[in-house]
Design a protein that fits this description.
heterodimer, A: 474 residues, alpha+beta, Uridine Diphospho-n-acetylenolpyruvylglucosamine Reductase, domain 3, Alpha-Beta Plaits, 5-stranded antiparallel sheet, 15 helices, 18 strands, B: 427 residues, Vanillyl-alcohol Oxidase, Chain A, domain 3, 8-stranded antiparallel sheet
Chain lengths: 474, 427
């Protein structure tokens, strides 16, 4: 990169705000999607919104592309620098600016870690509801870019349902506020369209987030079934009964065995499937819901329904679930996963299709997923030293996503399109749909300098993915 | 496309004194496409309408040649109760939608005014919500998929039919509150919820706005989970006290909904949470509660008023704002009624039933806007004599994000044929 440009960036952010050395920069070569890598030519770590704006204004003048980055925990390559020499990290924008408990919101800079927000208000009985599994590391800015979810989205919704307003540095360096700290801000909901835009509309530097009261009480169940079929019937039964659980997660035999071997929680390794069901809310509401849930489980031939005796047991159960992907390492040297979504009633169909795919391609596939949302995460196991198996995994993955779309679903429930699934966008969106998305991007990002080569496939430029996807926990 | 029985009369589509030259009732998405393509080619200004119940809101149309009424697009496209999603044509009215969902013990948790006269498309475009927003959320929280015909006639979609989906830009959000200026909404998919099994409502009276406001904050900061929380300076029904807003009594209406056990639990804790200041707490009868719910829901459009404003504030600012505004209204001899969604910081005001001079109305708008914006809030004038609309600047100013909004409009409706002049900054 031209020395004059480096000098100017140094001027703006100071020597401690620049990562220039090759070995230091190489840390930034990918996010949680590790299949593709690219080292940025320079990483800048601005200390303030004004510095972000000055950097972006300068890059815009020079027509140099850039990519924003939070903690790099994304799962679809959203902050991979593709033909974007400059990376702008938000790690120094790490202050919680303002806590307003009476009005139930927090103003935080975008580099603040998700969990810090809940920790800051925990003592007072509040929480920031979106809780992605990476919440100890991922940033608010990244959550906003990906419209992140978490295990409790079934009841509480995703990031966009909890953001009041954003401060954004637009790709020309202008600082604007979209939304606010109050509700129903007049004008188009630019906040809504910026959330989930995967950093292609500008760099979010600050956000006003809604706070939620912590539930008065929880109850967490582990229901054991002989078959996946009975477990899915139970999911439908619970939903149909009018209960909205806080979480409703399913695991099949393969994953149960892996987890049990790793964590010794006491999962029955001969079970066909287990459900983790959590309800929360007023303590008075939990007993009657418990009765109903137990009856529904029994009706669907549950072998056993255990209730977490205390908070420690509840946490142990969730720990097992959240680390399920790590446990797969015991079964297979490599694995990859998908993030497709189907309508809730189609969960049995997609599981059947996954079984067929598994047989067809002679691959072991484990299932651990958000059954209540219809958001599947099939884990395809393989050995990358076996070239033929590796090819079969890629084909199998594609076939599963195609099946999700056939069943009326979507390509991604919470991980984003990024670079990973760009080429599959035409499966669910028409050329007209993709055209309007391109035009929307141009409204915010007319020269496509901000996070280029993401989300929307360039006509004729689709890259066919031939190697498997990520292997990181989620 | 002649006038058929059951269709709203075209006189219903008069906007600020302007009648459309034609009213069309497309019966299919293709027909909407064709109509828009034609209008775009001939530069004909179109207002998308449903039953025309909320046409008084918004700026005076710059041009208005055709009303495009969506009420024939009322099909239920897909409804799987156990998926907890429903896809419907944009012309279906909300009351019908709720009736269909009600057969399965479900509902779309939105309670905007006049559900019999509010179409799904209208609810989305005007971002219409009601008291339940405190516990349930607003239109944008439930809309998961949308189909829209662009100004040039192209059909586009965003989102999908699944409750969790981050593929592509979140178009459904963009169309919530877009006021018919970015395209004609033809189909919508919503996430739905089980209908609460039981419900009850408490009415509390206070001698000042501040005391009522404090009680509301105690509730939102507690373990209580009110279904709605409404603060009013009038009584929504005659048997219950003064309806004019003149008596200086502030009322808090607290609704609870859910399982019977949840309601019983909260009933038994209500007084503990509110403390001694609460004074009289009255639990309403089922009939009273129903009448009240309707009155709270419909307040933004009910009864005669010379001026209606909707103000966005912090919940903590509501009480003082109401008290000061009441004094200001008295000074200007404009009877004032207030109703606030107390947990959301949304305040609806209605002034005058009788003639209030124009300059007084404008002075009130000015007062409201100055006081709202100085608190980082916003004020929208929802009803005022059309002749005053321009001076009242009904939407207020939007700030530095406005150029983005202009570019959005130019991108999606380059000729400006959709509702020209009716939205923020004359968009």
């Amino acid at each position: 990169m031209d020395q004059k440009i480096l000098d100017r960036l140094y001027d703006i952010v100071g020597p401690d705000g620049v990562v220039a050395h090759k070995s230091a920069r190489s840390v930034y070569d990918c996010d949680g999607y590790t299949l593709e890598k690219a080292v940025p030519e320079i990483v800048v770590l601005p200390h303030s919104t004004e510095e972000v704006a000055a950097v972006v204004k300068f890059l815009n003048k020079e027509k140099i592309a850039f990519v924003p980055r939070g903690a790099g925990t994304g799962l679809s390559g959203g902050c991979l620098p593709v033909e974007a020499p400059v990376m702008i990290g938000t790690s120094r924008l790490n202050k919680i600016v303002h806590i307003d408990l009476l009005n139930r919101h927090v103003v935080a800079q975008s580099g603040v870690v998700n969990l810090w927000v809940s920790n800051a208000v925990k003592e007072q009985g509040f929480q920031y509801a979106p809780d992605p599994s990476s919440q100890q590391a991922c940033t608010i800015g990244g959550n906003i870019a990906e419209n992140a979810g978490g295990p409790h989205t079934l009841k509480y919704g995703v990031t966009t349902n909890h953001v009041l307003g954003l401060e954004v540095v637009l790709p020309d360096g202008e600082i604007v506020t979209v939304g606010g700290t109050v509700e129903d801000v007049p004008g188009y909901d630019l906040r809504g369209i910026t959330i989930g835009a995967e950093g292609t509309f500008g760099i979010v530097t600050q956000a006003a987030l809604k706070l939620t009261r912590q539930p008065q009480a929880y109850r967490t169940f582990l229901a054991v079934f002989e078959s996946v079929h009975h477990a899915t019937q139970t999911v439908s039964g619970i939903i149909a009964s009018g209960i909205v659980p806080a979480a409703l997660e399913m695991m099949d035999t393969l994953i149960i065995q892996a987890i049990e071997e790793a964590f010794h929680f006491g999962f029955p390794t001969d079970a066909g499937a287990v459900l983790i069901i959590e309800i929360d809310g007023l303590a008075a509401s939990l007993d009657p819901q418990t009765e109903r849930i137990q009856a529904i489980c029994k009706h669907n031939k549950a072998r056993e329904v255990r209730i977490a005796r205390d908070d420690a047991e509840r946490m142990a159960l969730w720990k097992s679930r959240k680390r399920a992907f790590g446990a797969i390492g015991r079964l297979s040297p490599n694995y990859c996963t998908q993030d497709g979504v189907v309508p809730r009633t189609k969960v049995p169909d997609i599981l059947q299709r996954i079984t067929e795919v598994s047989e067809k391609y002679q691959l072991r596939i484990a299932n651990v997923f958000h059954a209540g949302d219809g958001n599947i995460h099939p884990i395809l196991m393989y050995d990358e030293r076996n070239a033929d198996e590796t090819r079969r995994v890629v084909q199998a993955g594609k076939e599963i996503l195609n099946a999700c779309v056939d069943l009326g679903g979507s390509l991604t429930g919470e991980h984003g399109i990024g670079v990973e699934k760009m080429s599959q966008m035409p499966l669910i969106f028409s050329p007209e749909d993709l055209m309007v998305m391109t035009q929307l991007r141009s409204v915010f990002n007319p020269d496509n300098l901000c996070n280029p080569n993401k989300i929307i496939p360039t006509p004729g430029g689709c890259i066919d993915v031939t190697t498997p996807r990520r292997q990181v926990p989620l | 496309m002649t006038q058929a029985a059951g269709r709203p009369p075209s006189s219903q589509f008069i906007i600020d004194g302007q009648a459309p030259e034609t009213v069309v009732y497309p019966a299919s998405v293709d027909e909407v496409s064709r109509l828009l393509k034609e209008a775009n080619e001939h530069d004909r200004a179109i207002s998308p309408v449903g039953h025309g119940a909320f046409l008084h809101v918004g700026g005076v149309p710059k041009r208005y040649q055709q009303a495009l009424c969506t009420t024939e697009l009322s099909a239920v496209v897909n409804y799987q109760p156990t998926d907890m999603t429903i896809t419907v044509g944009a012309g279906l009215d909300l009351a019908q939608l709720q009736a269909i969902l009600g057969e399965n013990g479900q509902w779309l948790p939105l309670d905007p005014p006049c559900p019999e006269r509010a179409t799904v498309g209208g609810v989305i475009a005007a971002n219409l919500n009601g008291p339940a927003r405190f516990s349930q959320g607003t239109v944008r929280d439930f809309l998961i998929g949308i189909k829209v015909v662009r100004a040039d006639g192209t059909l586009i979609k965003g989102g999908g039919q699944v409750v969790k989906n981050v593929a592509g830009y979140d178009l459904p959000k963009l169309y919530c509150g877009s006021f018919g200026t970015l395209g004609v909404i033809v189909e919508a998919t919503f996430m739905i919820r089980p209908r609460p099994e039981a419900q009850t409502t408490f009415a509390l009276a206070f001698s000042s706005a501040e005391k009522a406001g404090e009680a509301a904050l105690k509730l939102t900061g507690s373990d209580m989970q009110p279904f709605f929380l409404e603060l009013a300076n009038f009584s929504p029904f005659p048997s219950f006290g003064d309806q004019s807003g003149d008596e200086g009594v502030y009322r808090l209406f607290v609704g609870f909904a859910g399982m019977q056990e949840e309601i019983d639990d909260q009933r038994s804790h209500l007084r503990d949470v509110l403390g001694d200041d609460a004074g009289g707490i009255e639990e309403l009868s089922v009939d009273e509660a129903q009448t009240l719910a309707q009155a709270l829901r419909d307040f933004p459009v009910s009864g005669p008023a010379a001026l209606r404003c909707k103000v966005s504030l912090q919940p903590t600012q509501l009480a003082t704002f109401c008290a000061d505004l009441a004094a200001e209204a008295r000074r200007r001899h404009a009877p004032a009624r207030f109703l606030a969604r107390a947990g959301n910081g949304i305040l609806y005001t209605a002034f005058g039933g009788e003639a209030v001079p124009d300059d007084q109305l404008l002075a009130l708008v000015d007062w409201i806007r100055v006081h709202a914006t100085s608190n980082n809030g916003f004020a929208v004038v929802e009803e005022i004599p059309p002749a005053l609309k321009e001076r009242a600047n009904v939407w207020g100013t939007v700030g530095k994000a406005f150029p983005l909004m202009q570019r959005l409009k130019e991108t999606l409706d380059p000729k400006g044929i959709l509702n020209p002049g009716r939205f923020v900054g004359g968009i």
